[in-house]
Amino acid sequence: MFVILPSDEAARQHVYQRAALLSYRLKLLLNPNEPRHVELVNAVEAAFVALIPAFKTGDHSHTATHIRRVTELGQQVLKSEWERVKAGE
Question: Within a domain: residue 29?
């Protein structure tokens, strides 16, 4: 896990901008009509929002919980999409 100190403004800006970019790219790849995809988007947004207080306090434990949830949901979406592709849909 990474830790950004509250005093490192340049690092905070870099991580926040990168997280925003990745969040938007992921949203473009997901289907808003698929419940699992919507759940993943919501988890990504929650992780993104959790960055702000984490940057202020230096405590990233709550953010790490969100990141684990995003990873878990992302794996589930990828698996279901892979199964769909293998089935020829």
Answer: no
Q: How many CB atoms lie within 10 A of CB 55?
A: 21
Domain-located, residue 46: yes
> One-letter amino acid identity for 6?
P
Report the number of distinct structural domains present in the chain. Answer: 1
Residue 87 structural domain: 35-89
At 10-37, the pLDDT tens digits run: 877 888 888 899 999 999 999 999 999 9
Using CA atoms, how far apart are residues 22 and 5, in angstroms rounded to an integer?
A: 22
DSSP structural state of residue 4: -
Task: Please choose, from the candidates 51, 57, 60, the residue with its C-alpha nearest in 3D space to the C-alpha of residue 3.
Answer: 60
Given a contact cutoff of 8 angstroms between Cβ atoms, the answer to whether 51 and 65 are in contact is no
What pTM did the predictor assign? 0.80
